Give the backbone structure.
Amino acid sequence: MAEAKQRAGRTPADAALEAIWRVVAALPRGRVTTYGAVAARAGLPRRARLVGHALKVAPRALALPWHRVVGAGGRIAFPAGSAHFREQRRRLQAEGVEVLRGRVSLPRADDLDALLWGGR
DNA sequence: GTTGTGACATTAT
DNA sequence: CATAATGCCACAA
């Protein structure tokens, strides 16, 4: 229908957020990925920034493993020493992920991730 | 409608 | 390694 331009309160932005949430929610335990990888996997290339926003506005009820999402090269996106930073590091270490100087041991490259993710 | 900001990425210097 | 510039897009003022 022509008048069906927009569903009640339903915007493309919301769909993007949901897509991102779904990808993050699917992150296996002990696995760390980057914002860019999440965005790409959610069908939103070059929208890493949006991923950050999505996580920020994500309802707590979703219990998203936000701590498994880090910046490029495995760098934690939060300012070193901040409360969020410490919490993320603590959660990652709790899952067996080594965090050294604000960085997590990433599998060399996203290619490996993409390969594993691409298969499934 | 314009402006500034941001849980980023990439490339260049 | 750090800094700057650019892209990208949602959101608040």
Notes: Chain A is about 45% helix and 5% strand. Residues 13, 16-17, 44, 46-50, 53-54, 57 of chain A lie near DNA strand C (CB under 10 Å from a C1').
